[in-house]
Amino acid sequence: MDSPLLNSAVQDFITDSLQANFTKIALMKNPFPDIRWNDILNQIASKNKAKDKLPTWFSHKYIIYPSKISIEQTSSERAAKYKASLIDGVTLIDLTGGFGIDDYYFAQKFNKVVHCEINEELSKIVRHNYQILNQRNIECYQGDSMDILKKLNLKWSWIYIDPSRRSDVKGKVFMLKDCLPNVPAHLEDYFQYTDKILIKTAPILDITAGLSELRFVKKIHCIAIDNEVKELLWEIEKDYSGKTGLNAVSLTKDKTEIFSVNYGETDVKANYSLPKKYLYEPNAAMMKTGAFEAIGVTYDIEKLHQHSHLYTSETEIEFPGRKFVIKETFPFEKATVKKHLEGKKINITVRNFPLSVDDIRKKWKIIDGGNEYCFFTTDVNNEKIVLLCEKI
């Protein structure tokens, strides 16, 4: 790639500026007058964003970055590694290549990967970066992905798609038909070239809504990184007619935790109980699945209330979420709460409760933080209660 940003002096300047105050850097005189200052500043900002999210890219000199927003929107390496662990085969074509993080990891599992990107400049950047990373089994094609799919006219082991929401669609809730490409409309076209499709969607897509638009969904993965749901993955297999598996995947630096259930199994019913010795709060990926009854059954723990989504047991178990020892349980009464909590430093959580965390903090002058945890919730008898806990 022929870019003045690849000049060694410019690259050294970008690296040396990573720890500096960005505002001060932005106000200084451009030391490279032949290069647009905004282009250099974008490399500094984007590379800083990549430090934790894309450590492989960050560690290599002469990597070119797209805009900071593109870095924020791209898959993290942790998520990309998990995706690649799900599938393998001979060939994969990515119809929405973007910055190419996913394809780099797919390339470890496939003989050949094709990266399609409609943005010409981004396609050039990705091709250059793969060369720097010495990834030789990825081919980059620039243009409309459907045109590329038809032109290559090959049978692929997998098609991968990460549709983006159309710019004219407003609001937080959207359907797959509101994205580009419109996967539901093109599904039959895709099946001319593959029997297996992996789709990545934003976490705000409703699982039930997604299933209503798609066919042959074999498995759905809710991916959370450091307890924040980042994406949904949809495995589709042509003519599949079995149950749809649902995986809640929690990725942290130390471990990967997976909770598995079949979607829509209504015959599973959890047991209910008043608070016992231990309290369990499901992680964000588990919450996204909505399989609250199945959580209780799978781990043999009891729910506090149908809508509280907190669980309890007399003996401690391994659980993919937060665990607490319940030190004290008391009714939600003004005088009692005042006696136990007023003016203290405590972490507050509300579940199925009429007041917000801010309301509670203001009312009893509670300071955020500390080693104690307090849950305001509703029990199986529909009574408002407070649980004072210690995190395990």
Task: Produce a short descriptive summary.
Residues 278-320 form the PG-1098 ferredoxin-like domain. The protein has 392 residues and is of the alpha/beta class. It has helices at residues 8-16, 22-27, 37-53, 55-58, 68-73, 77-86, 101-106, 120-132, 145-152, 183-190, 207-213, 284-289, 292-299, 334-341, 357-364, and strands at residues 91-94, 112-117, 138-142, 158-161, 164-165, 179-180, 196-201, 217-225, 228-237, 245-251, 256-262, 278-282, 302-303, 311-313, 321-331, 347-351, 372-378, 384-391.
List the helices and strands and how they pair.
Blueprint: H1 8-16, H2 22-27, H3 37-53, H4 55-58, H5 68-73, H6 77-86, E1 91-94, H7 101-106, E2 112-117, H8 120-132, E3 138-142, H9 145-152, E4 158-161, E5 164-165, E6 179-180, H10 183-190, E7 196-201, H11 207-213, E8 217-225, E9 228-237, E10 245-251, E11 256-262, E12 278-282, H12 284-289, H13 292-299, E13 302-303, E14 311-313, E15 321-331, H14 334-341, E16 347-351, H15 357-364, E17 372-378, E18 384-391
Parallel strand pairs: 1-2, 1-4, 2-3, 4-7, 8-10, 16-17
Antiparallel strand pairs: 5-6, 7-9, 8-9, 10-11, 12-14, 12-15, 13-14, 15-18, 17-18
